[in-house]
């Protein structure tokens, strides 16, 4: 069975400051890892994903995440946040096989203030 | 390409009633999954359909059922609604490779 732990339920940060949202997973098999973002009253949008290859993956809006197999982590980082980054962020894992499903963490609310 | 569309966006039902939620998958995706997201929680997997067959199910009772149609669209049916069924229901489509999941905007179900 797989599980995902997001260690922080809320992360308050000032605009233009760096941020890290932590995610640890548990799985007995190789995994695919995902970060999704959810704005208020909306569905989930894929932010970035790790499938294989380079352990550092980047999104088009400045976020990056690094897959660390030894620490079973996939932390999300951004060097300088904007007010518009305020949202709920979900880390998710799948076992990488066809027809597999996503297991989500409970989410981290990123609150960016001026 | 079109994304995943869900209908309706919101609805209110009375306890004990039945509800049907609908989902159109993204073009080229043949697998549809349904998730329930309770307030303040991460999405929980309900079940998955591939080629009109259920091929995975989470920890949900049988009153949660579904269908997938030949065009890969899907329905989620919930019978005998309970207050705890109030949640955002998310549909996600993916190719059979399992490396990409596209979510719809969800249906907000309120049971009173």
Summarize this structure as a short list of keywords or feature phrases:
heterodimer; A: 114 residues; mainly beta; six-stranded mixed sheet; four-stranded antiparallel sheet; 0% helix; 51% strand; B: mainly beta; seven-stranded mixed sheet; 11 strands
Which structural class is indicated by helix and strand composition of chain A?
A: mainly beta
Tell me the span between the first and last alpha carbons of chain B.
38 Å
Poorly predicted parts of chain B: none
Shape of chain A: globular
Order of helices and strands of chain B: EEEEEEEEEEE
- C-alpha termini separation of chain A: 41 Å
Number of helices of chain B: 0
Major sheet of chain B: size, sense and barrel closure?
7 strands, mixed
The oligomeric state of the chains shown is: heterodimer
Task: Assess the beta-strand content of chain B as a share of residues.
Answer: over 45%
Strand percentage of chain A lies at: over 45%
Q: Rounded to an integer, what's the Rg of chain B over CA atoms?
A: 13 Å
CA gyration radius of chain A, whole angstroms: 14 Å
- What would the average pLDDT of chain B be, to the nearest integer? 92
Please give the largest β-sheet of chain A: 6 strands, mixed
Alpha-beta content class of chain B:
mainly beta
Q: State the total count of DSSP E strands of chain B.
A: 11
CA-based shape of chain B: globular
Q: What's the mean pLDDT score of chain A?
A: 91
Most extensive chain interface and residues per partner = A-B, 27 and 30 residues
Structure description:
The complex is a heterodimer of chains A (114) and B (112). Chain A is an all-beta fold and 114 residues long. Helix content of chain A is 0%, strand content 51%. Chain A is built from no helices and twelve strands. The termini of chain A are far apart. Chain B has 112 residues and is mostly beta strands. Chain B is built from no helices and eleven strands. In chain B, strands 2, 4, 5, 6, 9, 10 and 11 form a seven-stranded mixed sheet that branches. In chain B, strands 1-3-8-7 form a four-stranded antiparallel sheet, with no helix packed on it.
């Amino acid at each position: 069975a797989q599980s995902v732990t997001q260690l922080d339920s809320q992360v308050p940060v000032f605009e233009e400051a760096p941020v890290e949202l932590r995610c640890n997973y548990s799985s007995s098999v190789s995994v695919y890892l995902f970060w999704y973002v959810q704005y208020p009253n909306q569905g989930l949008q894929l932010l970035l994903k790790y499938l294989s290859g380079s352990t550092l993956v980047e999104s088009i809006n400045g976020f990056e995440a690094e897959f660390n197999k030894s620490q079973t982590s996939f932390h999300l980082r951004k060097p300088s946040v904007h007010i518009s980054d305020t949202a709920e962020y979900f880390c998710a894992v799948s076992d990488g096989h066809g027809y597999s499903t996503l297991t989500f963490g409970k989410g981290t609310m990123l609150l960016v203030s001026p | 390409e079109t994304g995943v569309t869900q209908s309706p966006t919101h609805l209110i039902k009375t306890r004990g009633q039945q509800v049907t939620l609908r989902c159109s998958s993204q073009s080229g995706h043949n697998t549809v999954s349904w998730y329930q997201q309770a307030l303040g929680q991460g999405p929980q997997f309900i079940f998955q359909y591939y080629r009109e067959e259920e091929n995975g199910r989470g920890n949900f009772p049988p009153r949660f059922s579904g269908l997938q149609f030949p065009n890969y669209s899907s329905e989620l049916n919930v019978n005998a609604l309970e207050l705890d069924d109030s949640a955002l229901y998310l549909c996600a489509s993916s190719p059979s490779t399992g490396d990409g999941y596209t979510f719809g905007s969800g249906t907000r179900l309120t049971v009173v």
